[in-house]
């Protein structure tokens, strides 16, 4: 009987200790200022059926970010993306996509203006702590793909005045500013184009952080060499774990860190590990696009509901094959091992294709903190990873701009 009581006591103490440890990790996560460097959620803000203040479900409507889930996952904010897809390199296309980008910027501004007690626009590094200290979510603005600027670099000042503080020159294909990592043509400029080099100088002058994600390795090297302030990879993985053009090798990773730059780790499954082919799903999506078209920003509520239901049925019949949380953490931990916590952050590509098994929306972000604590990283390391590193880059960009203007 005595032995039985002792065993029960030991079990109780072990459970209590484990519970206390888990709560301690939750408390650490909640104390941190947490920023994600790449939130594609503005693509949803233009939809008539999407309300950022209401809780959604990835299983139901495929969204990954809203205010209730930010609260659940302890996400304080981040960089909300102005994105336009790559199109032809001509004046008409530039003008059309310029207007699309301006509307996307205004959608972000509107999100803030209609929810003034919940969100606040941030433009300098010091804003982040101030905004979170008064209980609001931080809204920095970034641009993925500078293509809508056309060949008129004065437009960068326009977007700067709207709040733009981070800029990626390219996306899936080469454009007027430089080479993409995934264009089938390969490199056509040898990195940045002459106009791309002017873009770097103008971004530096304004105090905009330059983002090399999606860029060809040669483009990233040009950014590192030409930019007067450190550059960022807002959502990128490592070639050591998975050799994909969208990822970075250790040599270039070290060069990025040596220059003061930061890499934010992507959670886009196809860039994390080799996934099996899923031809039935690909064909089903092609049929979906043929039926509804791709100009989704013009859809009314009824069309959106029909598209959402069709996509739900498609995913049910042909489920997506995703990488695992462990796949994601292998990239994260390798990058940390190579360059250390002063040069790493989180940029999971939410609402832009990111998400892995066990971590399909921002409500699960504490998993990252818990895993890194288990790996022996300190609360200070986590503070650097979650926000200090990217805020340092913002401050350095502004300090340089102040010094030359």
Automatic annotation (TrEMBL):
Q: Which CDD domains match?
A: rDP_like
Question: What's an example of a GO molecular-function annotation for this chain?
Answer: metallodipeptidase activity
Q: Name one Pfam family in it.
A: Peptidase_M19
Membrane spanning residue stretches: none
Q: Name one GO biological process term.
A: proteolysis
InterPro entries (alphabetical): Metal_Hydrolase, Pept_M19
At the top level, the lineage of the source is Bacteria
PANTHER family reported in the protein's UniProt record? DIPEPTIDASE, MICROSOMAL DIPEPTIDASE
Q: What is this protein called?
A: Peptidase M19
């Amino acid at each position: 009987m005595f032995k039985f009581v002792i065993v029960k006591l030991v079990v109780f103490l072990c459970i209590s200790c484990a519970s206390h440890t888990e709560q301690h990790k939750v408390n650490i996560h909640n104390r941190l200022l947490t920023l994600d460097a790449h939130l594609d959620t503005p693509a949803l803000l233009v939809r008539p059926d999407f309300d950022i203040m209401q809780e959604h479900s990835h299983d139901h409507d495929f969204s990954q970010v809203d205010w209730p889930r930010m609260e659940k996952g302890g996400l304080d904010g981040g960089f909300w993306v102005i994105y336009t897809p790559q199109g032809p390199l001509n004046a008409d296309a530039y003008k059309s996509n310029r207007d699309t980008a301006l509307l996307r910027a205004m959608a972000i501004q509107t999100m803030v203006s209609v929810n003034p007690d919940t969100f606040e626009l941030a433009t300098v590094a010091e804003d982040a702590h101030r905004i979170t200290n008064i209980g609001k979510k931080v809204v920095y603005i970034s641009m993925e793909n500078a293509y809508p600027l056309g060949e008129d670099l004065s437009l960068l000042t326009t977007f700067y005045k709207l709040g733009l503080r981070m800029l990626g020159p390219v996306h899936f294909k080469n454009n007027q500013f430089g080479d993409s990592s995934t264009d089938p043509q390969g490199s056509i400029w040898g990195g940045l184009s002459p106009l791309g080099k002017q873009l770097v100088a103008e971004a530096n002058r304004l105090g905009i952080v330059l983002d090399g994600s999606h860029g060809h390795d040669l483009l990233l090297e040009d950014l590192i060499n030409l930019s007067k302030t450190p550059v960022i990879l807002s959502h990128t993985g490592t070639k050591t774990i998975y050799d994909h053009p969208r990822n970075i090798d250790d040599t270039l990773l070290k060069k990025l860190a040596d220059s003061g730059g930061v890499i934010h780790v992507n959670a886009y499954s196809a860039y994390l590990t080799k996934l099996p082919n899923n031809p039935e799903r690909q064909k089903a999506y092609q049929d979906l696009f043929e039926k509804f078209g791709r100009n989704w920003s013009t859809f009314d509520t009824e069309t959106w509901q029909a598209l959402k239901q069709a996509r739900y049925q498609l995913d049910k019949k042909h489920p997506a094959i995703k990488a695992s949380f462990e796949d994601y953490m292998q990239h994260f931990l390798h990058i940390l091992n190579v360059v250390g916590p002063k040069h790493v952050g989180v940029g999971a590509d939410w609402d832009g294709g990111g998400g892995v098994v066990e971590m399909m929306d921002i409500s699960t972000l504490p998993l990252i903190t818990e895993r890194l604590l288990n790996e022996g990283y300190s609360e200070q390391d986590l503070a650097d990873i979650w926000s200090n590193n990217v805020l340092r880059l913002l401050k350095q960009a502004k300090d340089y701009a102040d010094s030359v203007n």
